[in-house]
Amino acid sequence: xxxxLISIVALVLGYLVYGKFVERVFAPDDRTTxxxxxxxxxxxxxxxxxxxxxxxxxxxxGTGPIFGAIMGAKxxxxxxxxxxFGCIFAGAVHDYLTGMLSMRNGGCDAPELVGKxxxxxxxxxMLVFSVVLLLMVGVVFVYSPAEILxxxxxxxxxxxxxxxxxxIIATMLxxxxxxxxxxxxxxxxxxxxxxxxxxxxxxxxxxxxxLWDGLSNMGQATDxxxxxxxxxxxxxxxACGAISGFHATQSPLMARCLTSERKGRQIFYGxxxxxxxxxxxxxxxAMWFFYNGDKPGYELIPGGxxxxxxxxxxMVVNLVCNDWLGALGxxxxxxxxxxxxxTSGDTAFRSAxxxxxxxxxxxxxxxxxxxxxxxxMFAVAIxxxxxxxxxxxxxxxxxxxxxWSNQTxxxxxxxxxxxxxxxxxxxxVITILPALFMxxxxxxxxxxxxxxFGMKTDIAYFLGGLCTIVAVIWFVLWLHKYRKLEEEIxxxxxx
Length: 495
What we know:
By secondary structure, the chain is mainly α. It has helices at 2-26, 34-37, 49-61, 64-72, 78-104, 110-118, 120-152, 156-172, 179-204, 218-222, 230-237, 246-255, 264-291, 304-307, 313-360, 367-390, 394-423, 429-448, 457-494.
């Protein structure tokens, strides 16, 4: 529990100190924002800052900081360090600079930003990655809340249909009709859940592993069937709450609603820090569930001893919310857990619609144009959803691909922002270090994952390191070429 408290304090200090430093690097000013200049009543709509913060937080929160943190806690206390350092120095920086760059470029989406700073070829790759990722997010975030609700009342299939119909409606309507009105309420539920669970943790004071107990792979030491390595698997498993490329698709949504650049740190950096706190709460809860000294949580579930270390994340959520918080508290907590993925899913489809519209140059003011994109998009999503439901391991397979593509998208954005900082003669070290680290994570995971190449650990590490070295060489060569070109232009202007 001491580690949990230290981690919370670290995240708050990260926002106050490092967040302020990153803000000074970007240097927001008083220029007119896209929300005012391009107000169309559909996607570009000025909104109140507190409401934008609540929507941004709920958009990015999803099941990631809950399910991801639960699964990531299996690795032990090392999960705390990744959430702290990943959130402060990578995730929040990624979200803030992506959102601010979107504002500086007319509210454009992530592929457009990548295309501007990394070239047209990379833009095409980013475009495919973004749309595929958003479709997987939508599908994953249909099924996970439907499963939780199905365990409470009705059936998973019924709730899947209900949620999917809601997605279609929310994607089509102007952003302030549903999203702007009900999302703040759902955000409150999610925040209530985090605060309530934290209070119960401090009251109960369970015997949990601390950082000073060691950073080794506790999962492998506890259960021989747990085969995943800390590197790179932990950094893929815990995405939301540390760093997530999905956020790069969400920040532009709110960048189109902000009326002042100076509020960017509160919205983008602040929402990510808040998500990190939610991830810390659920990681700590999961530590209790898997590693409590007196009695692990899975022993409280009928038949839990049989599953033990492999108990599903939704079962952990149901047990904790209902057992710890009572009837009313459990309802509010479950509402937050359910609302988070649902509200991330609908904005995922909304982002996909806007990215596709931007790529094909199709204005979105008319309902007909929105339908041109939504009908085939939702048709593909339905096919993915049906495949997932018909296959026993379908959810797990899609989650694995989602995790890797999610972090790869974040890597693209970090490299794009690095190029921007170089061009503006700003300290690009704040983005190139996390960019290189995530390059190593994503490339290594591609080689080591059973869903991809499934190579041996040593070979995967070697190839991942090689990919990272190639990235360093590429950047050095590009930087040399860029600075040489700058010198030539400077000499010509003097002449």
